[in-house]
C-alpha cells in the first residue's frame, strides 16, 4: 500500500519549515499523478494541526501514514497513525479523517448526509466515512483480520466548535467513528494517549504496509450470506459444468499446491456472469479468498449496486482489472475475471508516471499472478476497442508459457434474445465473424427483429413496449436506444440539461450522461441500462455491453458500412 510515511516529530518539522505539502506532492507524483490546489491547501491547513497535537500528546514517535491508499482502490485516507497500544504492547492503528469544515448541518434530516457551508451538494457524514474506511481495511488487510483489538477511527473537525456542527454530534459514535472538534481538543489528545504509548511506531507501520491483501474470513462469510440464495443464479447444463469445473480447479490447486487457470468462453447471454457470481458465493461460503473483477466501469458499478445490494462491504469485492498492479503473487485464492475480453495490454493510463509506465507488466500477467486460480469468462467477439486482447488463444498461451495447467469450457446455450441461438448465429454471419456470409433473417418464433423507417418511429415503438412490473408480481418490460459513436458528445449545459447531440433529420436526443453522477433526471452512465430514466438518452457500447433489456433499438450511423456485400 502506498503512503507518504514519516514520524510525528518529522511531520511537525516539515510543517514548520513549510515544505510538508511539497514532500507529500512529490510522493504522489512518483506513484500516481498530479496534485490539485485544493489538496495542497488541505495538507497545509490540516496536517500541521495533527502534527502539533501528536507532539502535545507526547507522541512524537508515532508513525504517520499520510494519503494512505486503500488496497485495491484509488481512494486515499488523510492519515493512518501507527504505534504501540499502551495497554498491552500490541500494534495500534488509528484512521484519521481531517476536515476543515467550520459549519455543517444534517442534510434534509438525514443522519448519514450533511450539508457543508460553501460546498455544493450533500457530503457523507465524516463519522460514517471514517467507519467505512475502518471496515474496508479490516476486510482486506490480513494483519487487521488477525488483530485482537479492532481498528479505530476518528474524524477531526479542527476548525469547528460544537454549536456549529451540532447536528453531526447527534449521530451515535463507535470506536470506528468518533468525532472531535476544536472545542474538544483536550478529549482528542486524551484519546490519542489512550491509543498510543510514547514509543516508536515504526515496526507497526512496517507490518501494516507489508500486510497481505485479501478478503477476510468475516467478509467472506458475509458475502456468502448475501449471495447464496439468489433465484436468478440458477445454473443449467454447460453453465453448471463451468461452475463445477472452477470449483474442481480450486480444490485441485489447493491439494497440489499449484496454480491452475480456467477459461469460460461463450457468447452474449450464455450466462458467464451468472456463473461468476454463483462461484463467488460458493467460494465465500467455503471461506476461500475470492474477488470479482471486470474491465467495464458500467458493469462493475452495476454489480456493486445490485449484486452488492447497497452493502459497501460486499461492493468492495467487485474490482477492476487495473486494481492489481501492486498486488502480491497468489495474494488471493481465486480471481474471477468477468468480461475478460476487455483485458488490456497493460494497466497504465494517461495519469501513470513515465517511470512506472516503463516498468509496467502486462495486465494479463498481473491478473494471473494475483490468484492461485485465475478464472477468465469471456466472449471473443465483444472486444470494444484496440488494445483489448482477451481471447482463449492469448490467455491459454500465456498460462501455458508460465507452466500453468489450464481448463477451457465453451458455453453454447443462449439465455438472452428469447433463447434464440438462430439470432446469435445470424448476427455473427452478418458481421463476418462466422459462416459464409450474410443471410436474410427468416425468423424463428423466439426473437423479434424489425426495421424502423426513422428514429422517431423507433422511439415511439420502444416507448409503447415499456411496461413497469405489475402489482401481482408480473414482470415488466424494458427498452433502450443505443448507437455507434458517430455524433459529438457535449458536456451538460450550465443549467444542468443535456445537449441533444444525436441528430437524425429533425429528431434529436442526448447521449447517456458522461460521468457517474446523475444530471437532472438522467442517471449516471453506469446505470443507464438499469435505471428507468435511461430511456430518454441514447446509450453507447460502454453503457450497453453486458446488460439486458427486452427491446433494444439500434440507430445505425456511418460507423457501420457495407463493402462488396459484406
Question: Would you write up a description of this structure?
Answer:
The chain has 19 helices and 20 strands. The strands form five sheets. The chain has a six-stranded mixed beta sheet with strand order 1-2-3-4-8-9, with helices on both faces. It has helices at 8-16, 20-31, 37-56, 126-140, 142-145, 166-169, 185-195, 202-209, 217-227, 238-256, 272-286, 297-306, 312-315, 354-358, 363-370, 392-401, 421-430, 455-465, 541-544, and strands at residues 4-7, 63-69, 76-84, 91-99, 104-106, 113-116, 123-124, 152-157, 178-181, 260-266, 290-294, 318-320, 332-337, 371-378, 405-411, 479-483, 502-504, 507-509, 538-539, 551-555. The protein is of the alpha/beta class and 566 residues long. The mean pLDDT is 85.
Number of helices: 19
Largest beta-sheet details: 6 strands, mixed
Average pLDDT: 85
- Give me the Rg, rounded: 26 Å
Major beta sheet, strand line-up? 1-2-3-4-8-9
Strand content: 15-25%
**β-strand number:** 20
Q: How far is it from the N-terminal to the C-terminal residue, by CA?
A: 51 Å
Poorly predicted regions are: none
Helix-and-strand structural type: alpha/beta
Could you estimate the helical fraction of the residues in percent?
Answer: 25-40%
Bulk shape: globular
List keywords for this structure.
6-stranded mixed sheet; alpha/beta; globular; 19 helices; 20 strands; 6-stranded parallel sheet; 566 residues
Question: What does the secondary structure layout of this molecule look like, with pairings?
Answer:
Layout: E1 4-7, H1 8-16, H2 20-31, H3 37-56, E2 63-69, E3 76-84, E4 91-99, E5 104-106, E6 113-116, E7 123-124, H4 126-140, H5 142-145, E8 152-157, H6 166-169, E9 178-181, H7 185-195, H8 202-209, H9 217-227, H10 238-256, E10 260-266, H11 272-286, E11 290-294, H12 297-306, H13 312-315, E12 318-320, E13 332-337, H14 354-358, H15 363-370, E14 371-378, H16 392-401, E15 405-411, H17 421-430, H18 455-465, E16 479-483, E17 502-504, E18 507-509, E19 538-539, H19 541-544, E20 551-555
Parallel strand pairs: 4-8, 8-9, 10-14, 10-15, 11-12, 11-13, 13-14, 16-19, 16-20
Antiparallel strand pairs: 1-2, 2-3, 3-4, 5-6, 6-7, 17-18
Helix pairs in contact: 1-3, 2-3, 9-11, 10-11
